Amino acid sequence: KINVGIVGGTGYTGVELVRLLVRHPAVHIAALTSRTEAGTRVDAMFPSLRGLTDLKFTNNDANELANCQVVFFATPHGVAMKQARELVENGTKVIDLAADFRLQDTAEFEKWYGMPHSCPDLLAESVYGLPEINRAKIQAARIIGNPGCYPTTVQLGLLPLLEQQAPLIDPASLIIDAKSGVSGAGRKAEVSLLFSEASDSFKAYAVKGHRHHPEIAQGLKAMQSDTTHHQVFDKLTFVPHLVPMIRGMFSTIYVRLTEAGLATDLQSLFEKRYADEPFVDVMPAGSLPDTRSVRGSNHLRIALHRPNNGDLLVILVVQDNLVKGAAGQAVQNMNLMFGLPETLGLDVVPLMP
Amino acid sequence: KINVGIVGGTGYTGVELVRLLVRHPAVHIAALTSRTEAGTRVDAMFPSLRGLTDLKFTNNDANELANCQVVFFATPHGVAMKQARELVENGTKVIDLAADFRLQDTAEFEKWYGMPHSCPDLLAESVYGLPEINRAKIQAARIIGNPGCYPTTVQLGLLPLLEQQAPLIDPASLIIDAKSGVSGAGRKAEVSLLFSEASDSFKAYAVKGHRHHPEIAQGLKAMQSDTTHHQVFDKLTFVPHLVPMIRGMFSTIYVRLTEAGLATDLQSLFEKRYADEPFVDVMPAGSLPDTRSVRGSNHLRIALHRPNNGDLLVILVVQDNLVKGAAGQAVQNMNLMFGLPETLGLDVVPLMP
Amino acid sequence: KINVGIVGGTGYTGVELVRLLVRHPAVHIAALTSRTEAGTRVDAMFPSLRGLTDLKFTNNDANELANCQVVFFATPHGVAMKQARELVENGTKVIDLAADFRLQDTAEFEKWYGMPHSCPDLLAESVYGLPEINRAKIQAARIIGNPGCYPTTVQLGLLPLLEQQAPLIDPASLIIDAKSGVSGAGRKAEVSLLFSEASDSFKAYAVKGHRHHPEIAQGLKAMQSDTTHHQVFDKLTFVPHLVPMIRGMFSTIYVRLTEAGLATDLQSLFEKRYADEPFVDVMPAGSLPDTRSVRGSNHLRIALHRPNNGDLLVILVVQDNLVKGAAGQAVQNMNLMFGLPETLGLDVVPLMP
Amino acid sequence: KINVGIVGGTGYTGVELVRLLVRHPAVHIAALTSRTEAGTRVDAMFPSLRGLTDLKFTNNDANELANCQVVFFATPHGVAMKQARELVENGTKVIDLAADFRLQDTAEFEKWYGMPHSCPDLLAESVYGLPEINRAKIQAARIIGNPGCYPTTVQLGLLPLLEQQAPLIDPASLIIDAKSGVSGAGRKAEVSLLFSEASDSFKAYAVKGHRHHPEIAQGLKAMQSDTTHHQVFDKLTFVPHLVPMIRGMFSTIYVRLTEAGLATDLQSLFEKRYADEPFVDVMPAGSLPDTRSVRGSNHLRIALHRPNNGDLLVILVVQDNLVKGAAGQAVQNMNLMFGLPETLGLDVVPLMP
Fold first, then answer.
1. C199 to A12: CB separation less than 8 angstroms, yes or no
2. Average of per-residue pLDDT values in chain A
3. Residue A89 and which of A218, C150, C166, C204 are 20 to 30 A apart at CA?
4. Which residues of chain C make contact with B299, given a CB cutoff of 8 A?
5. ipTM for this model
């Protein structure tokens, strides 16, 4: 069994990793760290795990992680980059669920995350962990930057269109109206995330700019060998909203089709592109996905619409923000890095209702 | 006191009318009808009204409504148009909260509502009850078509832009990503509206076409004396979504600014346009309204954003779908029709939290 | 108009006071304090109040409150008792929504609240602000200890039974299974109150002991001139639970009837007792109240059940924890203290749905 | 693999059976019936199952079920008893998730379910499917009456106390204050179960009497060989409440301890009784279980409290009403009936948050 470590086990992505890994047949959780909870049994903090593990939180120090073949960082931004070098030099692979290894442009990283990048060389060798795009690179990687939740939906929602030679869409027209459940904001004691504040209400947030914006732009650029439109992606419109639900992410993507796009069977294009992808589900044309259809699972579902058969394509994408949008994708990456079947340990049937 | 009748008192717009009218100082609820509940005390069905009224539901027949000076129809589409003639001929004013008097084009009505219009002449004289646009006409009207909930947010969100001579926006670029609480679907026993189906999930619906689409198009056309772009409005993009909350509506409106639009102080334009409107609140630039800020009240709030100072204007509009989006607006119309202060009986402070 | 001050205006009871007082016809809010938000407009923090007030938060100092005829303390426990003396000596009345003036036994206060009482003399003269029991005393009081939310439901649920000469119930059998919406815990940044923690789940809490326990016991004792059973009330069983809803409190009270109780028409007893109480609604026998029937209003509803006509009486009590359970009751007390109609400013129709 | 059939696949217990069985390693779902949806793919109705099954709903007729070794009835009451004889005579085992085989007293069945029992002989041989009590009998049974959700919590919460020779509790004092998520009411189009009715509110229901009452009484009697107190159980107090959450059941059980009970180490008693039970978790003394700790899993958790060290025992029991309270328990029974490991296919980690 692979010895894995989880740094930062008390947040939602951390405990979600435990949920998935505790019954992963090829994995042993060797270490689970938390600065604040060292010494506490994880099932004392999260009784949902009673009977499944005897693990205790430990401090985040090198000894604890020394035996691990892979370490997941479910930490605030900036932690993984500080520990990554020692780990990889000792032969431990690193999967960071924060943003330290997502943006290749360190200036962009510094601008959005307010700190300099401490290991640009490791960043340069790291791989952006979106398996549907980077599968081969992930298999060979030492360090994975696990994608953000919103960027996962947007990139997989647009990938079949953008990777074509002929431009099928007008990138300048791109508008992403995205909606997330509250768990996306993390397990932080903030007034705005209280039940009495966030329930029975709806709002937009970060309209001025969201950290996932540059990550989305970087991802979309990477799909196009032709760099003509690359600047356009920097100006894409991305408006996130907060939904009174625990888990779930819904992106409504609006984009104008070109003549070439109008002439293409897009449903077929998407179906073919994702035919062999175990976690991407292209629903029948005209479908209306709901977020609960992926609750707890690593699946992402896509449905295409062209209202009134016009030139506007509406792409609906749903995922569980904590699974395909975070911990599930990280496990999928781990499976690839260790030559395991990609779906191992990820056969959770969505919880409905 | 004005004797009012409410036809269809068991749905959400009906009971919301009762909530507002039962303490309206100039009104006496003389009749409240329900085919299925005739004879039942309204406070037996809705205990929230205990101590506030002794009213019983009656059958919907002419005698019951004969003494009313105004009758609200909180009924399914098609009911008001059957009873309106007799009422107005007897001097009773009619406010229809359904769609019978919203669409002036009877072909459109028939297409979207699946029934012929039974009184095109009354439709022609009826007034679309959006006070911010039609105040004078409403004051003189015998029949009001009370606006749909989504169309209220979209029209008030775009009115200051579209009523200008110089075109400030490119109408072909208009995208409305709208979100509604579940009460917008009415008090109907449908599986898809069950708590266990609709809570903790999010979805789009009616992407292929929604009945409010032609109403929005009609309203936007009416704002422009120049008919050049009228066809374009028929093709606007409108994608409604269902939010797991009881009340509340949030419209995120995306539209490209023209050169003239870019040169205009839009914040100031909106603030001036609505300076004297008691129920339209233009929030400070950059505000992020949430739906709970209008819970239970007749207010609609608007905030303007221009991400990255680009040419895309993002207009955020919130209202309570049952108040400004339905019953509250109907009471506002009644106040106008009877020469009462426009805000009378509508001084409800939003319930927060 | 009466000049009122509110100390601690950023919590849920504080902003609820503002909601009620901002349209109270006999009141002017002269001061609203907050240590952390001094200088901020209250409607910038709570946009639901936009257009209703220009008030800014100020520091909590004597000058700000000097002009007030009454000051509400919507603060943590221990604040009001520090400021009360100066206020009442200047002729300002005090209504404390925290616990400083609830428990007459200072040892009990110290045990449950972890601080000594700083003004036992003022405590001794203060009046427990449950109008249905202490109306006359409230009218004459300088200082009111506004009841806790749970104690209000329990005392009003048992009052008609306990104030009888003949013992109608066996006090040793008393079990209170109580349920509260999340706003009852206040507007505090705590992980356990986050949307993602508290929604879609249910739990008991404070089973070992809750601060409202001694307050309930004190209140029930006060109803009985015969002190025989007073010790028994100290051992009553009170188990609170947390419900995933914003507002609302539901107490299910179980108690065995004596022979005298079995021989009494309890429905009639309750109806007569509360016949003249404007905010206590005894529902018809067999009713099943829901908390939403009082959402936003100062009403408390009671329904009596005797399953299988046995000797166990089940009393169901609902209220809005922030209104009759806090701010509404405080306004009711203020009305009494100033000789105003008791219901003034409290004519809010419950928000349903 | 075992061929299983599910009759009534469109309700919540039906689709929950599919969720569990579709990845059960020893099972093949051979038939899934629905009168109304015959011909529809199950994943068209429930997109959460896309990619997991190609199954279509069929009519409920004998041919479809002929190949099944076991048939689950997730149907309204009265369906299973009509089909059971033909099935068992053909060697097919039957697990009924409705009430047809729960109550051995046919008069009680008729009284509570309003229909005569059509096969009293099969009822007599059927086994009540609570594995923690009837494991050996279940292994040998042809027909299982799968327990109701509330009765499962109450019986497992009281079992260690009642199966002792010495009476540890006073059965006359028993009060069960139970709370259920909305999915417990089924997937029925009823107004009272709508999102806008059931969310953000709390209520008691069926206070006059609930169908699970006689089932609880029967179960508790069966735990005691001494029949002295059997009549008392008929009069136990059981008050169910509706919680605004999808899944989850919480029973707060109050019972007076006898001298023998006071002298017993109850925590130890419970821990020993359930030490080998894979799905019953006795939490450490003083624990406060929440329903989300079992969301989606077959576990039931129990915590014991004695407030103030008095003679009242408070037993807190949580389960997922659709899993241990219905479909999960049914699969557990199937595993027993076919000699499979009892936990096979039930290794779902609770979904948290």
1. no
2. 96
3. A218
4. 50-51
5. 0.97
